[in-house]
Amino acid sequence: MPRLSLPALLLGLLSLSATCGAAADSAISGELGLGLGYQPHDPSGSRYDTAPLPYLDLDWGDVSLSTDDGLTWDAFKSNGLSIGPYVNYLQGRNADGSLRGLRDVPDMADVGGFVQYAPDDFWRLFAAVGQAVGGGGGQGGLLGKLGGEIGYPLGMGIIGSNNLTLHFADARQTQTFFGVSDQESRASGIGSYNAGGGLQNVTLTQNFQFPLGDNWSLMASASWIRLTNSAADSTIVRDKGDVNQGQVQTAISYKF
Question: Which of 22, 47, 163, 224 pairs with 208 at a CA distance of 20 to 30 A?
């Protein structure tokens, strides 16, 4: 259950309506809900925020909208293999508090392509490569992820799942959140740092779905995020953040 802002949700729903004209005869199905999350304020883990979060897992023909993957279209689908484009939300950074003196990073869109193999409803393997767009001068670069998820019944209608995802970024994208220019260093007191690309973090997530009756469910997740390589070596992380981070999210959802 990653973060997705309300503006991003509204944009996604508008995009869904515009994109799916050809699927007008298909009914929307899935789950929709609202909850709370306690999670890092920014990728360096400088502090934590509590924020309201939507929960989305919607399908409309070959188009899907979810908190995990954003807005996706299965342009090709056969025997559990799906390939297509996606648009997702990438949260920015307000450089206040302990990060004062660094540049703000605006919210951006992550636009790219994905491939997924999901032969049944209880496990999947996936990969995606995208470009962060909408940033300021020099901000935003290439992103990628590679991972897998497996679900399992726990009895009494309770469903559990585990997700392991490796997140990659090029040097420009890593510099956006983890680099410190000489000017920023003088303004913030954080040492200068030029970030490089590669594996940025490994995220392990445990999810639970508890039935509440009448199509209602309680969704809960807990994630461990381990920064790696250039991100972990950043002076922002060393001085203000943490290489080991966590997030906890819960939501009430309705299935239709």
Answer: 47
Extract the tokens encoding 235.
């002076």
* 30 located within any domain: yes
- Mean pLDDT of all residues in the chain? 91
- Look up the CATH number of the domain holding residue 88: 2.40.160.40
Tokens for 187? Answer: 């303004």
Residue 9: per-residue pLDDT = 44
Q: Report how many domains make up the chain.
A: 1
Answer yes or no: are the C-beta atoms of 188 and 240 closer than 8 Å. no
**At which residue do the structure tokens 């510099």 appear?**
175
The boundaries of the domain holding residue 90 are 6-255
pLDDT, tens digit, 9 for 90 and up, residues 113-156: 999 999 998 999 999 999 999 988 889 999 999 999 999 999 99
| Token output for 73 | 């279209």
Tens of pLDDT, residues 52-88 = 999 999 999 999 999 989 999 999 999 999 999 999 9
Q: How many CA atoms lie within 13 A of 86 on its CB side?
A: 30
Tell me how crowded residue 193 is: count the other CB atoms within 10 A of its CB: 20
In a domain, 1, yes or no: no
Is residue 187 a part of any domain in this protein? yes
Provide the token pair at 204: 């392990």
Provide φ and ψ at 4, rounded to 5°: -150, 120
* SS3 per residue for 48-102: EEEEEEEEEEEEECCEEEECCCEEEECCEEECCEEEEEEEEEECCECCCHHHECE
